[in-house]
Amino acid sequence: MSAAPSVTTLEDEVAHLDAKLAVLRPAQTSARDYALKYLCAAMSTMCASGVTNPFDVIKVRQQLRTQLPGQSANAFWAVGAQMVRAEGPRALTHGFAASMMREFTYSGMRLGTYEFFKDTLNSASNGALTREGVALKVLAATCSSSIGSFIANPTDVVKVRMQAHYPQGRPYHHTAHAFASVFREGAATGVPFGGVRALWRGAEATTARGVILSISQIASYDQVKQSLKAHGVMREGLPLHITASLFAGLCCSVMSSPVDVVKVRLMTDKNRELKGVFHGVRTILVNEGPMAFYKGFSMCWARLGTHTIVSFLIFEELRKLVGIAPV
To answer: Which Pfam families match (predicted)?
Structure first.
């Protein structure tokens, strides 16, 4: 009769200790584990990008429109329907190959090396940056996303170019042709390293977006998971992964949309009408108003929210498959 309460108490104690150990687990991780984390991150985000590519195309088309905010013609269903009617269903797959290349480098880096930077910064600070603290997560997300965003900028430029609308017909035959065209376009300006500069056009906005996105997505996912487990609200498993990823998807959509709009405008600005990030922000603000920075937000949320959920669910399952602890 007296055994039942002690069993229940023991289970509660084990669950509580498990949550604490998950938060305070040691940082010793092998190079093999870091490599596996990168591959798991790249594979999961590539799957997510494949699912959300149609949303991404519609979002880019919305962000490139310059009519006044609130006009129904810019609604995602109107843009999507117009695309299918005018260009066929395959228009929703534009930029797919470049998107896969981008995910492997950019998202693989920002998500796959996040824990490497967490471990490194925690060790370098002799524990001053605690694993349960927000500061460590923010700094780790900043480091991983800054590097990944800059390296992957050319794939982002080509992806956006291939997803944009061209009334006179698409100028790019395939992904390799788009890379070459952008390079030649920059080289033709006569500016030193013009071709390389063209491929890295908008890198400032890309990096800023990557940092904001990663802090609001990866760090928030990590923090929500940690808090729910530490307070005994939820245990490690699918329901916890879904809950944390839903919160992270909304958070990163709200935070990254303005920078994303500026980034897309810069990357598709063939005539160099925008002189840089700050000039782009000012031009959009003056000509279209502050709400222009949230053009395509519904598609941004649909894409990023779905992308976040799919990415983290697959990421966690792949980690389990290869024997790596959850995030």
So the answer is: Mito_carr
Question: Of the candidates 6, 4, 14, 10, which has an alpha carbon nearest to the alpha carbon of residue 235?
Answer: 14
The angle that helices 114-124 and 31-64 make with each other, rounded to 10 degrees, is: 120
For the chain, which residues make up each domain, given as ranges?
A: 31-321
How far is CA 320 from each of CA 31, 36, 317, rounded to the nearest angstrom? 18, 11, 5
Q: Show contacts of 150-154: CB within 8 Å, 24+ apart.
A: 150/200, 150/203, 150/206, 150/207, 151/105, 151/106, 151/109, 152/101, 152/102, 152/105, 152/106, 152/109, 152/206, 153/199, 153/200, 153/201, 153/202, 153/203, 153/206, 153/207, 154/179, 154/182, 154/199, 154/200
Where do we find the tokens 């594979």? 43
pTM over cut 0.85 = no
Tell me how far the alpha carbon of residue 129 is from its chain's centroid. 25
pLDDT in tens, 132-176: 899 999 999 999 999 999 999 999 999 999 998 888 888 999 999
Ranges of H-type helices in the chain:
3-23, 31-64, 76-87, 96-102, 108-112, 114-124, 134-151, 153-163, 175-187, 194-199, 203-214, 220-230, 238-267, 277-288, 297-321
